[in-house]
Amino acid sequence: MDELFWVALALGAVLKLISIYFGGIACFALKKEVKYPSAKKLRRFAVLTAARNEEAVIGNFIESIQKQNYPVELFDVFVIPNNCTDNTELMAKAYGAEIIHCPFPVTCKGDALQQALMQLRKKGYDAFCVFDSDNIVSPDFLLKINDAFDAGAKVAKGRLLASNPQASWVSGCYNIYFNLFHLFFNKARGACGLSAKLVGTGFAVHKDVLESLGGWNTTTIAEDAEFSAQCALLGERVWWVPDAVTYDEQPESFRVSLLQRRRWCSGIMQVGKLHFKHLLQRLIKPNGVYAADFTMFLMGAFAQALSILPLGLTLLAAIFDGKEGIFNFIQAMGIYFLLYYTLMCLMATILTLYQEKRVFPKEMRSAILLFPIFMASWIPLQVISLFRETKSWKEIQHNGKSKDTIPTA
């Protein structure tokens, strides 16, 4: 039916407006990255990680922090063990970390951070760095974050890469995805003065921001996205610090990847439902541009879920048109998916070469060929999350085997 076709076309056009916005911002990735000058003042950092059954990897993380090119008297490492059934706490102590116990039940990472920062906020630290326990942190991380704070940052996000990109095609796809975000989201936003995407590891927060917020007060399963919304509501920019690199161990199983990314999708939608109204009210206030940009980011998740509607309406219209309509639909979809697959593989190849500095690892071939599937799988995850929330956090097991195979950033 022609009516269904035009409704699908109109709905698709509306959803594409969000893609056009992100595409426009991505163009700023062509600008040369500006380096922050060396800081004149050295700040005191508290380094935190919430750990749940991380015995196998916690030592690697603590060692990487202890090897920072930063005065050892100006940073302390704190591990927040929660719901552990292994020897995470004993292992963390053995490697020299201080332990923070949570006096109240912990159901997610946000709870652990809230209770830890409640104990640390008055201890004289200038800023707090948050990591995952499976991370390996580059030696210059604190130095580069400190440079950003000296330049005016109050919230800073470092670059994230997979520590195990060659372990499986899934972990390889994560690394390509992180490079995609580095170039077209974070680098572009850094170039035009917008906020970087604050994912749940490798970021730092100045004490003044926590004072303004009354501590760490996130309630959703996506504490990073919720904290980003709170920063946008404060009019506080998340500064992009690409030279502060964190390597994060990624799932090697596609099933585990789906579970993890579904939690991410559900969490972002929870944040959207919680803060859309407040973000819209913030648009007309000073620094409202950060609220506007983050609103578009949240809308992107919902738009991706709703993108199946134009496809479904087009298919329905084709069915009503009979055999010819169905044939034309299949032909059009075949051409579309061929173009999509080719372009995504090409992009994955370019992003891999970009990171590997023109040395192409053979182990990344399967990741490149399957990257289109990895990216397409976000859509069903968003659709499921739209109708069914993920309310509980489940640990992802790590093995720490990638310690000695960290790639060059």
TrEMBL record:
Residues 130-316 form the Glycosyltransferase 2-like domain. It is an enzyme of class 2 (transferase). The chain crosses the membrane at residues 6-30, 294-320, 326-354, 366-387. Its EC number is 2.4.1.-. Gene3D superfamilies: Spore Coat Polysaccharide Biosynthesis Protein SpsA, Chain A. GO terms for molecular function: glycosyltransferase activity. Keywords: Glycosyltransferase, Membrane, Transferase, Transmembrane, Transmembrane helix. InterPro entries: Glyco_trans_2-like (IPR001173), Nucleotide-diphossugar_trans (IPR029044). It comes from the Bacteria. Pfam families: Glyco_trans_2_3. Belongs to the glycosyltransferase 2 family. This is Beta-monoglucosyldiacylglycerol synthase. It comes from Anaerotignum propionicum DSM 1682.
